[in-house]
Design brief:
Layout lengths: L10 H9 L5 H14 L6 E4 L1 H16 L12 E5 L26 H8 L3 E6 L16 E2 L2 E2 L16 H8 L5 E6 L5 H6 L3 E4 L19 E6 L2 H12 L14 E4 L9 H16 L3 E4 L5 H28 L5 H6 L4 H11 L3 E3 L9 E3 H27 L3 E5 L15 H7 L4 H6 L3 E8 L6 E7 L5 H15 L12
Parallel strand pairs: 2-3, 2-6, 9-10, 9-13
Antiparallel strand pairs: 1-3, 4-5, 6-8, 7-8, 7-14, 11-12, 13-15, 14-15
Helix pairs in contact: 2-3, 7-15, 9-12
């Protein structure tokens, strides 16, 4: 068998190598496990199913050797699943002690689609506790002398969250594919900080059954992988939709830019966006300046109200269905992350939210009336704003820097509410509106050497078109270089 460049291996390449018998499934799984064990300081894994993965790989190899050509899209390929998405026979702790005992007996529908396509589940990835955060700094994970999930390019920095382990494992080139969840940026933030691709699908496009929830209006499972083309393959498997390829030309592709997404950017990010806009223009993309003065106010009105308005009831219903011996209050008493415990005790259980215009440090009000108004008025208005702007300017997407700043230092201070607000700043409008949103890795920062990414929001149910544009753009950007230290040989 030829030598495989695992540091730069993509999902599609892994599929092609296995199908052509140039690499065995056993070797893919073994190398994945070797790399996982070689980077304990990343805290990327909640659990590994080594025996199950090796047994499944042996079965895939035996079928191929017997002359049965692989017909399934992910046959023999290791895939990592976030620890809030049910995989039968694997623990599903959602990153919290109260659920450490829970092992689902059925796959979530999204996982069932992946399994039916031949995917091999290597294990479950670490995450911000109960998915209530954007850093991945979860004290539950302590290995290799570090606390919380760490960045693949600089272990002193956060991985991002809440799909933290997916981002770290992909960025460190341990796996080629993963499935996470996104309520307010949770697949896109760690993807951006670790130099990989991700998609937040249109709300309701993926089943949310068998997923530990936050807020059903905003929650969605989402694929993460090395490239947009890899994400397209995962999305094709889950959605059952036909394959799409990169648009043949970027000439005539129209991407809008608006001031909302340029707030609070650091100098390196500002310079990065100037460079990437110029690069896209040279490739034929038409950049359209768009005025959206109501985007900020509508988004701000919806954010807290939607999450806090649904959080208690959604978690309680989930526990009743899957962990009837645990109540929301009992779960709260065992939370290990101070900021998540404060979230539950201050907002979720009493059903309170910061007074409008506040960031949590001031007075609190009952969330119920605000939630009802937001669902009736502001959220529909935000969704209509996206429709109107896309139609008026004939847009293929809204483009911006995925993150306003570089990944910050990993410590407890990183989990503060102001930092959370900053980290989800650009992710929030698409999450509230329920439109598809895709993060694309572009390059390493000229000063920091850290991954820099752009995000593109599309129109509702325009996921496949968005991926088609993204695949064309990533050809212009080129592949993100691996971290300086990947895994010792």
């Amino acid at each position: 068998m030829p030598a495989v460049d695992f540091d730069n291996l993509t999902l599609r390449e892994a599929v092609a190598l296995f199908r052509s018998s140039q690499v065995s499934s056993i070797s893919l799984v073994q190398e994945t496990l070797r790399r996982a064990h070689a980077r304990p300081e990343l805290n990327a894994f909640a659990s590994l199913d080594e025996k199950g993965a090796l047994d499944a790989a042996a079965t895939a190899d035996a079928a191929l050797k017997s002359g049965i050509p692989p017909s399934r899209l992910l046959e023999g390929i290791p895939v990592l699943i976030k620890d809030n998405i049910h995989v039968r026979g694997m623990p599903n702790s959602a990153g919290t002690p109260a659920l450490a005992h829970f092992t689902p007996t059925e796959d979530a529908p999204v996982v069932a689609r992946l399994r039916a396509a031949g995917a091999i589940f290597i294990g479950k990835s670490s995450m911000h506790e109960m998915a209530c955060g954007a850093t991945g700094y979860n004290p539950l994970y302590r290995a290799g002398g570090t606390v919380g999930t760490r960045n693949a390019y600089d272990v002193s920095r956060i991985s991002g969250g809440s799909s933290s382990g997916n981002g770290a494992a992909l960025g460190a080139r341990i796996v080629t594919a993963a499935m996470g969840s996104d309520t307010g940026g949770s697949v896109r933030i760690p993807a951006a900080f670790n130099g990989v691709a991700s998609l937040r699908p249109t709300a309701g496009r993926y089943s949310q059954k068998g997923v530990t929830p936050i807020c059903h209006t905003r929650d969605t499972v989402g694929p993460m992988a090395q490239t947009v083309a890899d994400v397209e393959l995962l999305d094709r498997v889950v959605s059952g939709e036909p394959e799409v390829t990169a648009v043949p030309s970027l000439k005539g592709i129209r991407l809008g830019i608006t001031d909302f997404f340029n707030r609070n950017v650091d100098a390196e990010t500002a310079d990065f966006m100037l460079d990437v806009v110029a690069l896209m223009k040279r490739a034929g993309v038409e950049i359209v300046e768009v005025d959206m003065p109501t985007l900020g106010p509508l988004n701000d009105a919806c954010g807290f109200a939607l999450i806090i308005g649904e959080h208690y009831d959604d978690v309680a219903a989930y526990l009743k269905d899957y962990c009837p011996d645990v109540t929301v209050e009992q779960l709260t008493a065992q939370l290990v992350s101070p900021e998540v415990r404060e979230w539950y005790t201050t907002w979720t259980i009493p059903r309170k939210m910061p007074a409008e215009g506040g960031e949590g440090g001031g007075s609190l009000i009952d969330v119920g009336p605000v939630y009802e108004r937001v669902m009736r008025e502001e959220r529909p208005a935000l969704q209509q704003l996206y429709r109107d702007v896309f139609a008026q300017h004939r847009l293929d997407g809204l483009v911006y820097s995925t993150m306003p700043r570089l990944a910050i230092e990993a410590n407890e201070a990183a989990t503060s509410l102001p930092n959370l607000t900053l980290l989800i700043q650009n992710m929030s409008p698409s999450s509230v509106a329920g439109v598809p949103s895709m993060s694309i890795p572009v390059s390493l920062g000229k000063t920091s050497g850290m991954p820099m990414s752009i995000c593109i929001d599309g129109m509702e149910n325009g996921d496949r078109r968005l991926l088609s544009v993204g695949m064309a753009l990533e050809k212009v950007f080129g592949r993100m270089p691996p971290p300086p230290r990947v895994v010792p040989g």
